[in-house]
Prior knowledge:
The structure holds 2 protein chains of 2 kinds.
Chain A: E1 13-15, H1 20-30, E2 34-38, E3 44-49, H2 62-65, E4 73-74, H3 79-89, E5 93-98, E6 101-107, H4 108-117, E7 124-126
Parallel strand pairs in A: 1-2, 4-5
Antiparallel strand pairs in A: 2-3, 5-6
Chain B: H1 3-6, E1 13-15, H2 20-30, E2 34-39, E3 42-48, H3 49-54, H4 61-64, E4 72-73, H5 78-88, E5 92-96, E6 102-107, H6 108-117, E7 119-121, H7 123-130
Amino acid sequence: MRIDRIMTKPAQTIGATASTAEAEVLMEKARIHHLVVLGRGRKVAGVLSARDLRAAGPGTTVGDLMSSPAVTVSAADDVQTGARLLRRHGVGCLPVLDRGRVVGVLATSDLLALLGKGSLRVEQRATRWTMPKRGPTHRPEPRRA
Amino acid sequence: MRLRDIMSENVEIIGADAIVDQAKELLHRHDIRHLIVFEGSAMVGVLSEHDVRRAEGTSFVRAAMSAPVVSATEATTLRQAANLMRGNHVSCLPVLDASGRLTGIVTVADMLDLIGNGVTRERADEHRKAVTYVPGR
């Protein structure tokens, strides 16, 4: 299944120079925990989470607290790739890009929702096994002369 | 698929009257992110790495933990578990057996691994144990 079928869209974005107070208001209004931070030329500069905002003080900007560079994923990738990226980088959400433009956000909760609805079946694979020192994966040691 | 097929069985517990520094040490030593908090024989909360980071080192685990506990049973399906996590905004579920004893834990990371990599059945190892090859016999 492609990511653009299940992602949260549109993505809530904020400029890197905005104040943390603005970010807080935006998160509260949209009832979300992550904002995609846009830098120069509306390119993704990072991701700001509600947890990052705990370190906010007077005069701090979004750019000071965001996690950067952001781990992004393409809209055409499948959800398995998204899950692997979320896991490998230990992040809660990934900005989804389509030709360099942010089109949505893939969060852990989107994947849980998919699993919860029963629209995603977990693949069951069996491992290949061979007897010790037998089978196609075993390379015998070269004979000594 | 049910939680008994995918849960991690090495779950660590801590007393509610321990201090956060002890919990931090335990998380670090076992390289895990969640501890189940007990008060006597009752499961009273979950202490995550994030809770620990937020709390002061000398405060009690009781004050830093997330409570009440959202738990599941070994027979809970993957689908039910995903809904439990999402509905209650929790990142892990302690898993109990039929008699209510804590036997394992399932975290969001386990779910992401399952979606990303599928599940590998451990049947191969069972076979390996059963068919022991002894040369010359």
